[in-house]
Amino acid sequence: MGAESCIDLLLRCRNVFHIRQVHAHVVANGTFQDLVVANKLLYTYVQHKAIDDAYSLFDGLTMRDPTTWSVMVGGFAKVGDHESCYATFREVLRCGVTPDNYTLPFVIRTCRDRKDIQMGRVIHNVVLKHGLHLDHFVGASLVDMYAKCMVVEDAQRLFERMLSKDLVTWTVMIGAYADCNAYESLVLFDRMREGGVVPDKVAMVTVVNACAKLGAMHRARY
Question: If you count Cβ atoms within 10 Å of the first and of the last residue's Cβ in the chain, which end, N or C, has fewer?
Fold first, then answer.
């Protein structure tokens, strides 16, 4: 059985028991030596939140590529194992692997969830070192992290430097100002609309909260 057939089997897995069966099969027939198959197996464990199985597989791999590291870092982040997420990311750097725009947002969101501004600034320096500060996904994650950590000035600085801003990023920034400067929140909302970005329900609730704080509910009549 080739790599494509093994990956097809993994796509059909509905629970961890099925994944383990495929795992045993690819080890037995030697397909596990194909890193594409090993990475897909690792990813499938992570998707099913079988983090112990995922790490056992990861720890036993003799070869790892950036995808392998990204999946493991993301796996720990998704289950809320922040310390392991940090530790695995440190190993990424120690091994000389260049972090990418898939791995970094996971680590940045972990900093956000922990309100860990100190580690967030460390990761921001890693972003700058590797020239990923203009990447949309990385930039948006940093804005979100600074905003949730209530370092609004840094969030705003990054936000203004972003080459493109999607609805989520606008909403994050509007929400950050709604907590500390409701007037600026409304200014940003107007800028978003003028830029052709259509607000969704989340953005509308955010700006209505800002209107309430200003006592300007007439502005809430969109």
Answer: C
